[in-house]
Amino acid sequence: MQEKRVVIALGIMLMLASTTSAYAYSVLHTSSGAELRWYTAQVPYYINVTGFNDFDPDEAIEVIQESFATWEGAGIGIHFEYMGLTDVRSANDDGISVVYFIQDSDEWKTTFPNQQSALGVTRSWAAASGELLGFDLALNDAAVDFTNANTQEDTITDLANTVTHEIGHVMGLDHTDVEEAVMYPTSKQGELSKRTLHQDDIDGIHYLYRDGFEPGLDEEGGLSCSTGPGRDSGEAQGDGALLLLAAFTLFHRRTRRS
Questions:
Q1: Residues 176, 26: contact at Cβ < 8 Å?
Q2: Bridge partner residues of 146 (DSSP)
Q3: 6, 96, 136, 220: which sits with the fewest CB atoms below 10 Å from its CB?
Q4: 47: three-class secondary structure by DSSP
Q5: Residue 258 CB partners (closer than 8 Å, separation 6+)
Q6: What's the rounded Cα separation, in Å, for the pair 110 and 256?
């Protein structure tokens, strides 16, 4: 059977999000209603830090690895295996999952035309069964200076705060109404709280992986997932993203690198 790969906007996915009065968390679905999750406990990924100079690139690699480890600590048995550095930097279904930075604002606009102020965009691919097959996580280094500090006073846009939220989407979680949770769809300047999972995040991931890991099917589809500031993420078209509240984003926008 010929494989079919399609990217579906988060706005469409939100109409199928699983929410109940008992839980604030929600999960992503395929267009046919299957819950999105990994069917393997071992998920490989690569990192590309080409051009990153907000702080030590080796430190940034550690931050990204620690953000994946944060979700591993939720206790569902998943392991994100860091495979090393790569030169790949594309949000395409190319069989390799990559976390990477974009420093050029024109490149960001071209790649994610509806998310010009986004801090990060996660694009995932899944089978019709709901089995997640791969992802790319792009970080908008053209719009903000990422930081890695332990106090709010020294923080501009915390890298771990952004990446940890996006990894929640990588795992199949959608947004929540719980403001203290990692998967809450807005972020403030200087925020550090999304470095640490809230009980709502833990409950959501345990619900999603309640049956553990299963083999998938070979018919494929896909989606993009994200968050937005001061608005419903369902308003986002195309790819989604974690953004700062608009006022802070505008104030801290920097001149495009030459």
A1: yes
A2: 157
A3: 6
A4: strand
A5: none
A6: 15
**Distance from C-alpha of 51 to C-alpha of 249, rounded to nearest angstrom:** 21
Sole residue written with tokens 């970080």 = 139
Nearest in space to 80 (alpha carbons), one of 170, 3, 140: 170
> Is the distance from CB of 15 to CB of 24 less than 8 angstroms?
no
CB of 214 within 8 A of CB of 95?
A: no
- Look at the block and give the residue holding tokens 């801090």: 119
Question: Which whole-number Å values give the CA distances from 161 to 120, 147, 165, 214, in the listed order?
Answer: 11, 10, 7, 30
Yes or no: say if 56 and 17 are a contact pair by the CB < 8 Å rule. Answer: no
The token duo for 26 is 């929600």
What are residue 125's phi and psi, to 5 degrees?
-125, 140
Q: How far apart are CA 191 and CA 9, in angstroms?
A: 27
Report residue 231 as tokens.
């608005």
